[in-house]
Amino acid sequence: MPLHIIKIAVGIEDIPHLRRVQKDRLAAAKSREAKPKLRHLTRMFPSRADEITDGGSIYWIIKGFVQVRQRIVALEEVEANNHGKRCAFVLDSKLVPTVPQPRRPHQGWRYLKPDEAPADAKGGAADAKGLPPKLLAELRDLGLL
Predict the structure, then answer these.
(1) Number of separate domains in the chain
(2) Residue 2 CB neighbour total at 10 angstroms
(3) Enclosing domain of residue 116
(4) Distance between CA atoms of residues 138 and 97, nearest Å
């Protein structure tokens, strides 16, 4: 069973902003590397790496809500500009919106069990209206969505 990671997307406003930032980072990597990869660097290497790379995803917290996930393709140990060794989460470029789930802030990343992960958004009419995640969550709690 895959294990997931949950992490705050610091400085990100919404899913389109995350998409633009990652697109820019991948373009920058293309200018430096022969085979560029979409990576997110973290300080700590997960001890449960095999479970994560067995179908796990990184769930991004944006503005206090888990809003989107990306599949983790691989974990790599990299040297980071005079900062020592780091862990690079190699990510699939596809962003999968999730049902908004409120989350408190925390430092770094945390493991996320599959039964605690929010479901993928179905992309229904309510989601397509671009309502704020907090409002969507409240409407779902009331059984209106």
Answers:
(1) 1
(2) 15
(3) 4-141
(4) 17
